[in-house]
Structure formats: C-alpha cells, structure tokens
Design goal:
GO terms for molecular function: DNA-binding transcription factor activity; transcription cis-regulatory region binding. This is TetR family transcriptional regulator. InterPro entries: Homeodomain-like_sf, HTH-type_TetR-like_transc_reg, HTH_TetR, MftR_C. By secondary structure, the protein is an all-alpha fold. The chain has two domains: 56 residues, Orthogonal Bundle (Arc Repressor Mutant, subunit A), CATH 1.10.10; 130 residues, Tetracycline Repressor, domain 2 (Orthogonal Bundle), CATH 1.10.357. It is built from ten helices and no strands. Helix 5 packs parallel to helix 8 and helix 8 packs antiparallel against helix 9. It is globular, with a radius of gyration of 17 Å. 31% of the residues are buried.
C-alpha cells in the first residue's frame, strides 16, 4: 500500500495542524491498522457484521489472525477504534491557555466530527449504525473510549495545573466523550439525517447547561 493511501485515515482538514510527525515504525503500524480496518469495513459492507470473521479479515488484509488480535483485542474494536485519539490530544494541547476546559473539549470534538465526515464518511456512518444496531459493538464502545478519555484527561490536567488522576478532570473528560458518543448514537437512530456537528454541539450544551430551553 503506498504511503499516500493512508491520507484519508489521517485526521486531516480541521485537525491537521495539530498532528505530530510520525516516525517510520509508527507509520508501519498505522499501515497495518488501516489495512485491517479497511478490510473489515469492505467485508461488513458485503456480508454484514455477524457473518464477518476475524479469519476472513486477516485474509483480506493479508495478515495473520494473531496480527489482527495484536492490534485489535476484539472484533468490535476494529470498527470502533480510529486514529484520532492522539490527534485530539494534540489539538486540545493547542487550545488557548485561558479557555474554559469544556469549551476546549467542544472545539476538539466538533472538529473531530467534521474531520470524520470529511475523510471517513462511509466508515463513520457504518460505525454509528453498528453502535446503534449491534449490542456487542455498543457495549464495547466504552472500553475503546476509555483510552481516548485518559489521553484527553492528561492534557486537561496539564493545562489546568491539576494532578493526572484528578477526579474532576476525569469526570469532565469522560462526560464530554460520553456526550459525543450519544450524539453519534442519536444520529444513527434517526437515519443520519441530522447535522452531526450540530448534534455534538447540542449534547455539549446539555452537559454544560442542563435541560434548559
């Protein structure tokens, strides 16, 4: 796979400026992850989620089943995991120093939603549908989100001078990512007719202001 074929899975557009250059080893690992994810999405599009096996994914991606499991501990992780966590952390780190933490998270999450739709539209739509339709995928979503939550919480702790394990930082970050996930679920449950970025704004408004209006 040529290096430039990774471009659609790099968080470009609104988040590109925050992306740190990758080393050769990191790019090789990313190529493998991308190959596995693309193979998975092709198979799911052709035959459905339940009928798609790890063995089929490995064959389509030209890797071994053990390699698939090394990168993705569960099949659900393949459709839920993306490459945006570190980029989101970098983007959060670049927000203005005096900005309210929730507003910093809002900026990063809405830009992430826009980038997903711009650069991975079909994968994003399929992932949202699977979260809404497949109980195992929805159940696993919390596990895959936890890693991103830890990354963002670490950045917020640094920005606010709090400890890395500060409870308020953890709660705020987890709540914001939970709001993002609920926006995705609502979007899928309503046939993806709504503007996803606007839905993310609405969920974060609810988080900040409660049930008003």
């Amino acid at each position: 796979m040529p290096a430039d074929s990774l471009a659609p899975l790099d968080p470009l557009g609104p988040l590109a400026a925050a992306r740190r250059p990758m080393g050769l080893r990191e790019r090789k690992k990313l190529k493998t992850r991308v190959a596995i994810r693309r193979a998975t999405h092709r198979l799911i599009a052709d035959q459905g989620y339940e009928a798609t096996t790890v063995e089929q994914i490995a064959e389509a991606a030209e890797v071994s089943p053990s390699t698939v499991f090394r990168y993705f501990p569960a099949k659900e992780d393949i459709v839920l995991t993306d490459e945006y966590g570190p980029v989101m952390a970098d983007a959060l780190r670049e927000r203005p120093a005096g900005e309210e933490p929730l507003e910093s998270l809002r900026s990063v999450l809405t830009r992430t939603a826009a980038a997903l739709l711009a650069h991975e539209p079909e994968e994003t739509r399929r992932r949202a549908r699977l979260m809404a339709e497949v109980p195992a995928v929805r159940a696993r979503a919390g596990v895959t989100t936890a890693g991103t939550s830890r990354l963002l919480a670490g950045v917020l702790a640094d920005r606010t001078g709090r400890g890395a394990d500060d409870l308020q930082v953890r709660v705020l970050t987890a709540a914001a990512l939970g709001a993002f996930g609920e926006a995705m679920a609502y979007w899928a449950e309503h046939d993806q007719r709504d503007d996803l970025v606007a839905l993310v704004h609405r969920t974060l408004d609810a988080l900040g202001g409660g049930l008003t209006g």
